[in-house]
Amino acid sequence: MIFDNGFLEVLGTEDYLLEEKFHSKKNDVYKVRCLKVLEGQKVAVIKKYLQPSINIKREIDLLLHLREKGLSVPEIYFKENEYIIMEYIEGKTLLEVMEERERNNLFRKGYPYQSNEHLICTLIEWLERFYHHTNGKLILTDINLRNFIINNNGVVYGFDFEDCDAGRIEEDAAKLCAYILTYDPSFSSWKLQFTREVFYLLLKKFHLNDEVLLKEVEKEITNINRKRRKCFAIELFSNTIK
Ligand SMILES: Nc1ncnc2c1ncn2[C@@H]1O[C@H](COP(=O)(O)OP(=O)(O)O)[C@@H](O)[C@H]1O
Ligand SMILES: [Mg+2]
Fold it and tell me: Staple partner for 7: which of 3, 141, 168, 193, CB 3.0–4.6 Å?
């Protein structure tokens, strides 16, 4: 993949290496290591949009706006028509962190579920600030746990704003619960308890109604079943709430 000289100049480098390709269904996203660095950043992320559209503009505008408001999002170093170069956030995605916690809990067989309140609240506080700084007009829509990284200081960064749209917080809240439940191993007893914790912390923070939110989660799982041709048993989760 060849990028133009503007990119090399911005990164203060004469050469670069695409060190890692990240998991992405929609785009090409790479970790790039600058070789022969003159000054400044040594590592960055290149996101090349495979279907450049109006959504890139939305993503860039939001990254700039939210950063200006002090929300933890990656800094944009360079933007072109089809790609952006941004700050590399060192850490683990929230999906990796959650999977690690589930594995650790399982290794310690016989141990009851350990609360993850602190981790969940860190994410929810990021969400609260996102809704606040978009004046309650936008939701994330694509609220999967790969779109958040927790760095070594425990700070959550959010990104991937291409699908942001008008909507209700309940929609994001319900998607978050539904996505968590359906990551492999889906609907495990640990995931049911983790999601229950997420559900109640979301209710509390955003003053939502439990019946309304539960209905939304059920709707999301029905959507997932249709899209992924699955037959996840919704009541497994509903029973933990009632
Ligand atoms: N700034 C970043 N720092 C570190 N990793 C990133 C960064 N941006 C993206 N990634 C990694 O790349 C993946 C895909 O990027 P994302 O912006 O979510 O694109 P997509 O729209 O294709 O999902 C993320 O899940 C994450 O693992
Ligand atoms: Mg993503």
Answer: 3
> What per-residue confidence (pLDDT) applies to 81?
83
120 in the same domain as 71: no
Spatial distance between the Cα atoms of 43 and 141, rounded to a whole number of angstroms: 29
For helices 189-206 and 94-107, the axis angle rounded to 10 degrees is 130
Boundaries of domain holding 66: 5-87
Q: What residues flank ion ligand 2 with Cβ within 5 A?
A: 147, 160
Whether residue 41 is predicted with pLDDT greater than 70 in this model: the reply is no
Which atom of ligand 1 is nearest the CA belonging to 26? 22
Q: Is the CB of 45 under 6 A from ligand 1?
A: yes
CB atoms within 10 A of CB 24: 14
Q: Which ligand is nearest to the CA of 158?
A: 1
CB of residue 41 inside a 6 A radius of ligand 1: no
When divided into structural domains, the chain yields a total of: 2
Helix residue spans in 111-188 (DSSP H): 117-133, 169-182
The CA 66 to ligand 2 mean position distance, Å, reads 17
Percent of the chain with pLDDT over 70: 95
* pLDDT, position 15: 80
The CATH number given to whatever domain includes residue 133 is 1.10.510
Is the beta carbon of 49 within 6 A of some atom in ligand 1?
Answer: no
Per-residue pLDDT reduced to its tens digit, 133-147 = 999 999 999 999 999
Q: What is the CATH number of the domain that holds 57?
A: 3.30.200.20
Write down which residue in 57, 87, 117 finishes a domain: 87
